[in-house]
Amino acid sequence: MNIVIEKNPSSRRLSDLGVMSWPKWSCQPGKYALVFEERETCYLVKGKVKVYLKGSSEFVEFGAGDLVTIPKGLSCTWDVSLFIDKHYKFDPPTSP
């Protein structure tokens, strides 16, 4: 699935990345079909989610305290079990 999860990164790592200055996004528990048009890096402040690749029963689970990189082009369903509050950033689009 190529989702990279860094469990409990250090405060220095988060500071070096500028995570706390990234935009925030939140959602209630539920299922959400998502397509990632660009690579996203996010840091979960709160919550827990299972991410299912489209058309698959395989999942990756992550939650509060995890720094996660989601690849460009991923189609998936987020099954959110605990309210999500996250900081996120997208990689800038590449020019042709």
Walk me through what this model shows.
- This is RmlC-like cupin domain superfamily.
- Residues 15-88 form the (S)-ureidoglycine aminohydrolase cupin domain.
- InterPro entries: UGlyAH_Cupin_dom.
- The two termini are 26 Å apart.
- Helices cover 7% and strands 56% of the residues.
- The protein has one helix at 11-17, and strands at 4-7, 24-27, 30-35, 40-53, 59-63, 66-70, 75-90.
- A hairpin with a 5-residue loop joins strand 4 and strand 5.
- Strands 1, 2, 3, 4, 5, 6 and 7 form a seven-stranded antiparallel β-sheet that branches.
- It has 96 residues and is mostly beta strands.
Q: What percent strand?
A: over 45%
Low-confidence stretches: none
Radius of gyration: 13 Å
Task: Give helix and strand order, one letter per element, not per position.
Answer: EHEEEEEE
Largest sheet geometry: 7 strands, antiparallel
Helix content: under 10%
Overall pLDDT metric? 94
Count the beta strands: 7
Ends distance = 26 Å
| Category from helices, strands and their pairing | mainly beta
Number of helical elements:
1
Shape: globular
Summary?
By secondary structure, the protein is mostly beta strands.
What is the topology?
Elements: E1 4-7, H1 11-17, E2 24-27, E3 30-35, E4 40-53, E5 59-63, E6 66-70, E7 75-90
Antiparallel strand pairs: 1-6, 2-7, 3-7, 4-5, 4-6, 4-7
